[in-house]
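One thing: mind reviewing this one?
=====
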Amino acid sequence: MIQPESHPALRRLLNPPVVFLLLVLAGYSLMALAPGFRQRLGLADGGLWFMDSYAVLAANDAVRAGLDPFLPNPLDVFQRPHVYSRWWFVLGELGFSRRDNFLMGGSWVLLFAGAVMALLRPSTHAGAVWYALLVLSPPVQLAVLRASNDLVIFVLLLAAVGLLGPAIWRLLLCAASLVLATGLKFYPILACGLFLLVRPPRRMLLAGGLAVLAAGLTLASVWDDLRRAQIPSPNHVHIFGAAIVFRDLGWSGPTALVTGVLVVAGLASLCVRRKWAANVMETTGPEFESRAFLVGAAVLVGCFLAGISHAYRLVFVLLLAPWLCRQCFAVEARRRVAARVLSGLLLATLWADGLLCLGVNSLGRVDSPAELGRWLLLGHALTQPVVWAAMALLAGSLLAVVFQAGTDLRKSLRSPG
């Protein structure tokens, strides 16, 4: 029998990073070569590769044509209005148009792929399989298939995590990455919670305050764009947000938003009191992993509460993965169990809608909107408790960090010097 230990080449071939890469390549090759299976998972491309980058370029073409890009755009194949800031219009000033869509969308996908490979470096074969299941999950595939600009935001936030450091120039570059991400797509201002991990506490107060101020001014500068943007509230299978449950119940508007915030805040407080939530400030390991976890958690919880978005927003689960993977093998049982439970909930969140689509599509075609509506309600009843549990644990982790940062800051301010 051939033993890997006696064959160095085979041992290198079977090491965890290579296994992870091979699994991802095999999975995406299957999706490319078997579009029927991809469609059974509910991943429609609308007959157009990179349809989201196409919308951005179509908005740039509308500006050049003298049209209002914030209105339904006749230059887009789906007549979608621009729902982001004017900062994206620099692409048109650089000469890019819809003809360059494959280049633009492909570049975003390649940037994202490079960032993912730099972020996810498994040390065990179990970790390689878990990482592969995350990267191959339907929401991540949807982001890649559509070339969502969330891929660009992912790269910018990961850069901010990597740039954060004690040197002033590193703090400035980190803040610049957050400012750029916020200017492009509004919600990355949530990632300013990253500075809660800066130490000593007085530096956290100064650096975090300046970063929040810079990102806040950026958000204010594009506020008119945010106000004009007709951000859609999707109503299909692959969606994400606390408001899904309330919409099914017939609630909408501020009532649903406030209710969602209060429920998640209450559940987060319970998680902290019961010590179910993982506090990244209490664990050892690379600071990069803790920071990436905090950024991912802040963006996911904030977007979950803000409204309903396409499920590719869940791409930020990948930022949580390295820290969670390490904590799944922590010495302390409480931390190990908490990490494994959260890992399982997140994996279920990523795959639940896709598996539901696969099951329904395997049974036969849905013949009427009413039948589709019934399947959606059943799917939400099955999947939303899992999603809410995952978001509650993430919110608890954020709350634990806030409490710890506040405690450290008070002690620092009371101490002399």
User: Anything to note?
Assistant: The first strand starts at residue 239 and ends at 240.
